[in-house]
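Before surveying the methods themselves, let us examine one representative protein, pairing a chain with its fold in token form.
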Amino acid sequence: MEACPTRSWSYLGKRLVNRYLLCGQEHAERDEGPFQALLAEHYHNYKGQQPKCLCLDIPVPLYIVRIGDQYLLKRWPNSGSQHR
């Protein structure tokens, strides 16, 4: 499986940005507020559809956890080596 760095990262100004498949669409992690809203929408409205990390040609499954009023993307246990 070949890595495709242009899919995993994009430049936003001078900052590298991760890209994910959330709510059925590709999104880049930019501003915390809008990204939190996107994570919340996926968490509540897209049950059964895993978010995906686009760090490789083949998307890697993730999951979303809610801690208080924060939503976090997490790697599946023992899947760290699958990410770039």
User: Anything to note?
Assistant: Residues 5-82 form one domain.
